[in-house]
Each structure stands twice: as structure tokens, then as C-alpha cells.
Amino acid sequence: MDVSPLVWILTIGITTGLLLVDVFIVGRRPHEPSTPEVTRHLIFFISLAVVFGIGVWVLAGGQYGGEFFAGWLTEYSLSIDNLFIFIIIMTKLQVPRQYQQTALLIGIVIALVMRGIFIAVGAAAINQFSWVFYIFGLFLVWTAYKLAKDDDLDETQYDEPRIVRFARTHLRATDEWNGVKLFLHENGKRLATPMFVVVLSLGVTDLLFALDSIPAIYGLTKEPYLVFTANIFALMGLRQLYFLIGDLLQRLVYLSYGLAVLLAFIGVKLILHAMHENELPFINGGHHVGWAPEIPIWLSLVAIVGILGVTTVLSLMKDARDRRAAAAE
């Protein structure tokens, strides 16, 4: 896929512009958004992603269009699961509702920067070493196993990152909120506010999320531009989704299982791709493994939509059964 520097500049510029609009609007008036407000914004971002994907399909061909949609759906579904951790962080740190928008926005900016770095590193590694796909694939299969095993994550199981615990014990801090500011001055001393701890927690969490989301999307496309834009569109509506999906997230009881199947599928796809382009001398003498099939992008797209659809339907059916059973008692 031939993407000119001008297209990269325009994409980054538009992304920055959208973020700045968010920063100025939210920063000027921290508040808990209403349901109509977040619904309008979420529809806008989803529509923008769909229009962009159709544009890629028309201008670059169905292969790349399919890769974008597969990558976007995968990153979006992983982001939904990540929202559960965000909810736990906000609850444990007792973040006032009117400040949660700003905290999420800062966390999203951090995530975009870190994912940009991971995307660049991943692209460089893939271009130089085809065996990286073996590592990505095995890592995703392991992640899928862990996700399915720990599907019942709740507030009591969440372990605060070590760097956050270090900051709590070694930084001069206060329990007093100073709006959405990270620091305040008190008696001539500069103290970290609870918002600083929140932003640090979200930033470290974003870093951990990138460790599985970037290998996952590289299993669907090797085009850095598509990887970058799919991540942008997945993160752009995340703040709005946070305020809409709180109750629904509790009802998607099989979400972790569905995502585990999805990551395992992409992991196997990566391993098969690595075998197809094998250069490791201790595997088939350094030659490609002839029987290893390449899973086409249309099949990946069908699998992703099917896995997510079945997961959602089964989750809502179980939730409805549980509600009826509770009402009958």
C-alpha cells in the first residue's frame, strides 16, 4: 500500500485537530456528559470510521479495505474490554464524575502516543525479521488463555501497577482534588493531586493494553498506515463509550471468552503466516512450510464479526435468563 508523506501528515493533523477540539471543550467545562451528548459523538466517530474504511476500499482495493475493517473491529472490541479496567480504576480512586471525562481524554492521548511508538517498532521488526510473527502469534495465544482463565476480573482482583504504588509512596501528594490539575502548591511545596495518580494509572494501563492490541492488528494487516488509523478510530470514541456502556458491560458476561477466541484465532493466523514465510533454520530447514495455509482477510473479517456477534447474543441471552430467574424468586 503506497501512502504518501502528505497523507500521513494530513491524517496526523486531522487527528490532532479532533483531539484539540476535545481538549478545549472538555478542559473548559469539566462535566459528566449526558447520554444524548455521548451518543451523538459516538455515532459521529463510528460513522467517520466506516466512511474512512469505505474510502480505503474504493481507493486502495477490497483487500486493504477489508484489512482496515478487520483491524478496527478487533481494536474496538479489545477497547471495550479495556473499559472494564478503566471503570475499576475510576471507582477505586474515587474520581468525581465531572472529572472522569478529562482523565479519560488524557489517557487516550497517552495511548495514541504509545501505540504510535509500538506501531513504528512493530513495523521495523516485521520488515527486518519475519520470525517476529512467531513471537506475536504465541504471545496472542498465551494472552487468549490468560483472558479466558481470568474472565471474572473484578475490583478485588485488580492489582495496581507497581509504578503507581511507587508514586504513591515516594511522591509528595495530597488527597485534595484541585479540579483536573495534576499538581497544586501548598505551603510553598508542589504536591501531586489524585488526578496525577489517575492519569498515571491510565497511562500504565494503556501501555499494557498496547502489548496485545498491536500484535493482534499486525496479524490482520502489515500496513502501518492501516494499523495506525484503525487504532485512532478505536480510541477516538472510547471516552464516549465509557459513559454509555457501564451497565451494558456488566451484561456482556461472555465478552472475555469471545475476545479470547478472537485473539487465539489471530494468534494461529500469525503462526501460520510465519510458517508460510519461514526463515528459521531449525524449522523445515529454513524453508517455508508448504502445508501452512494463509488465512485470507475476508475469512478473518467473517470470523471476527461472527465471534463478536455470537459473544454478544449469548451474553445478552444469559443476562435475560438471569434477570427472569431473579425476578421469579
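(the above was protein one; protein two follows)
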Amino acid sequence: MGSSLGLALRKREVPVRIHVYARRAETREAALNLGIADEVFSDPSEAVRRADLIVFCVPVLTISELAKACRAGLKPGAVLTDVGSTKEELNRLMIAALEGTGAEFIGSHPICGSEQQGIEAGDADLYAGAMTVVTPPMLADEVSVRKVSNLWKSAGSHVTLMEASQHDRILAATSHLPHVIAAALALSAGDNGLFCGSGFRDTTRIADGSPQVWSDIVRTNAPALKAALKNFRENLDELSALVDEGDGEKLANWFAAARDKRKELLS
């Protein structure tokens, strides 16, 4: 996500200077070689020194810890954001992490991405046409919110504002549930790889995502995800009852309703 953002800003010739922090020297070198960064740093507090806008592209539960490591370099008025898939718990953690710094956290979540990992997987068009949700906390500075929103617009995104709790409820059903279902499907296929066709590959593709990223997502959005799982289980129970009944017309109607709902959601 981070390399894609850097490449997107470069492609669109956005007038910003990009400083990159990464733990591994190989990653820092790649950021320079790929043209993503103007400068690279092994110390997060040095990477953010004098920065107006800081974007965290790490697993959700790592963000607040990395923010603490940045404290010495944060200037008053700096705005911090992220690309994480959950927001309500992160908001609470960031309030504590930034206390006394004069910096402000405005969460954001670009609803795009892929299962591919690593800086080399960056895509300059990843954010083009995508929806990015910005989740300002109560009493957030309007100028800070505009800075974060304009960042994603500059990368090609459409932006919408939403409360963190609402974001987490919606994404539990539309993003987090599909991922855990894909993972469960992969675990349910047994040793039948020879017979896994395109349907299996398409449906389970996202199960290739980072285990750490998805562990953090589940841990920070457990109540909403459990509610989504309950709803999914009820739909499976309905299908199971129809299978037992063996009525072809009712089964066809069930699949037709699912097809129509998908078209409605994606229209």
C-alpha cells in the first residue's frame, strides 16, 4: 500500500517530497531505486522530522507503536493517517500515542489493494477510482481532515467521510467477512488441489494476504465481524435446509436472489 501511494503521487506529479522509513536496508534501497522516495531512513523519528503529513502503511496494531517511535521527530501541527482496515480501536490507541505532541491523527482506509506483499508489488494505479474512507475523530481540525482527504484525491481516490464505528461495521460485512470466508474455504478443500479450478482460485485469492495484517484486523474488529459471521451462518443454514428439502425451484430462487443482490451491490 505504501509503495503504491508513493508511485501514485509520482505518476500524478504531485508536488511533495517523500521520506520513507523501513526497518530493512533492502526495502530502503528498493524505495530509492523504484523512485518512490526522495530520502530513506532507518530511524522513524528522523523520517518524520519536519513532515506535514505522515502515512502509516503497517498492520493496524503496529501503527500506534510506530507512532510512539516517531514522537521525537513530530512537529506540532503534523497530521498522521494510515491505510488500516479498522478504525475505532486505532483511534483510541493513537490518542494515547500522540498525547502532548501537538500532532493529530485522522484515520483513513483506501478500499483497494491486493493479496501481493512487498515494496516491489507497488502499483501506481492502485488508488485510481477507488473509494477511500476518512474517519475523523470528534472535534478533529477541519484543515487536517482536508489535508488527508486531498492526499487520497491526489492519488486518484474518491473520498467519503464516516464515523469510525460505522466504518468498522460496514467493512466487517464487505471486506473482513469475505477474507475469513476465503481462508476457511482454503482450509476446507482438503488435498484436492488437482481439481481446484478457476472458481476456487478466484474465491480464495484474498486468502493469500498477510497473516499479520488479517490477525490484527480480526482482533480490532471482533464484535462487528462476529455479527457478520452470524448473518453469514444464517444464510448457510437456510441453504442447508433447502438442500435437505431438495426442491429445485426453491434452490434456483435462492441462487437467483444471491445473483441479484450481487448485481445490486456492485452496480
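Reviewer note on protein two: Strands lie at 19-21, 39-41, 53-56, 79-82, 104-105, 107-111, 131-135, 158-161.
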